[in-house]
Amino acid sequence: MSRFATARQSSYGTLPVPSVFTKKRASFSLLAAIIVTGACLSILLCVATSPVSWSSSPPRMRLAAAPVVPLTSAQLIQPRQIHLAYAGATPGTGMTVSWASYRRVNDSTLWVGTSPTDLTLATVAAETVSYYADDAYSLFTYHATLTGLTPRSKYFYRVGSASDASNVSPVYHFHTAREPRGDDDTSFEIAVYADFGERNAEDTVPYMTTVGNHEAECYSPICLYSPEKQAQLSNYSAYNARFRMPSGNSHGAANMWYSWSHGFVHFISVSSETDYDGAPTNNKGTKVYKPNGDPKTKHRALLNAFEPLLLKYKVDAVVSGHQHAYERHLPIAYNEPVVAGVSADKAVYDSPRAPVYIVSGSCGSTGGHEPYVDVAAQTWNVMYDNVHFGISTLKVNKTALEWSFVHAADGAIIDRFVMTKQ
Q1: What pLDDT tens digit does each residue of the chain (422 aa) get?
Q2: How far apart are CA 171 and CA 176, in angstroms?
Q3: Which domains does the chain have, with CATH numbers?
Q4: CA nearest 321: which of 401, 212, 243, 417?
Q5: Is the Cα dihedral 20, 41, 271, 415 positive or negative?
Q6: Distance between CA 163 and CA 161 in Å, rounded?
Q7: Any idea what DSSP says for residue 342?
Q8: What residues have CB less than 8 Å from 157, skipping those under 6 apart?
Q9: In which order are the strands placed within the sheet that holds 108-115?
């Protein structure tokens, strides 16, 4: 089997611009698999903003807490932290709206419509979840799942109290998912990123998450110094209470395992925190976020469990986070690059015979970038970047899938490749 040259460090040199969005019909599946010691990886439809870029080493956390300003009674019941997630057994027909308040609102509800000035009270009941409370803090999360929606349509909504007009959110909007493998020839774009800071787009754009180590831990000084708080918050209770992924529609488990479709792409969200012998007690020794299966580490052991399934079901790509860097591989099967269909410049993968592994974990974590060890020696590496912060975008139509890694500071494309399938 022929082998390519060693990986290249990213630069702002000339990048190939593939023009292979041909008339071939393709159906892709994208497996998003991260974790055990990983940070949350997220998929955001059609939105990409710039995370913080540090010009030097990121600042260390200071344990001195900022002054706390008490909230008024009205502020305690005000809807906040509004976010969306796709739902429904049939893609495009459902949407889950989630929000929170610091005091329980017993008649929390949802209004929806096709016009921002003509919203109707939804008949669906909002589920209330509370995962933590003490003398100083409590949080109530609400989830309402809309059904019977029209695929690829725009809806407007607001949330709040059914009986108190002063306790409602502004009007937001969302777009439902596309029907799978429909007749729509236009492309759509997805942002994929991990190890990031904070953002404010989830009230308009569906926000699909894959669990990682940060969702099982607490980082605030108050939590770090309280064994009681650590015991309550270090078991994914917050993550599973605040978000509502479509596991019920896909026969998954909570927000840990689920799948969903948008147009020509089927996504599978996999958690390596669960369903394994010894988990979670052994989770610190099994790292799936480094997908190259280095035989010198325990990465290979976990990949051995997954790889036969990935190959059997013809998964096209495996995307992971946790490692604060960007990395793209050749198609790999059983620790060997599979170069059939790969162009000489490695910018086009035509009907790859094995999954393509991608790490997209350099969105702007305050922990800085990860150092690489012997990465250039791996024959499957095409691109690695532990210098720039950025996000990945995925553009899909009926003929091809185009992946780009975009620099956060100036929008420059650092890496790009296209996958086609016959």
Answers
A1: 222 222 334 333 333 333 333 333 344 444 332 222 334 444 454 333 233 332 333 333 333 344 455 788 888 999 999 999 999 888 899 999 999 999 999 999 999 999 999 999 998 889 999 887 777 778 899 999 999 999 999 999 999 999 999 999 999 999 999 887 666 677 777 777 554 555 455 567 787 877 776 676 676 677 777 887 777 777 788 888 888 888 888 888 888 888 888 887 888 888 766 655 544 433 332 334 445 444 445 566 667 778 898 888 888 888 877 677 788 889 989 888 999 999 999 999 998 999 888 888 766 565 556 666 665 557 788 888 887 788 888 888 877 889 998 887 788 898 999 998 76
A2: 17
A3: 8-59+182-420 (3.60.21), 74-175 (2.60.40.380)
A4: 212
A5: positive
A6: 5
A7: B
A8: 97, 110, 111, 112, 113, 119, 171, 172, 173, 174
A9: 118-121, 108-115, 154-161, 172-175
Residue type, 138: S
Residue type for 318, please?
Answer: V
Handedness of CA 322, 327, 329, 335 (dihedral sign): negative
Q: b vs e for 180-213, b when ≥16 Cβ sit within 10 Å of the residue's Cβ? A: beeeeeebbebbbbbbbeebebbbbbbbbbbbbb
Amino acid at 241: A
Beta-carbon count within 10 A of 225 CB: 10
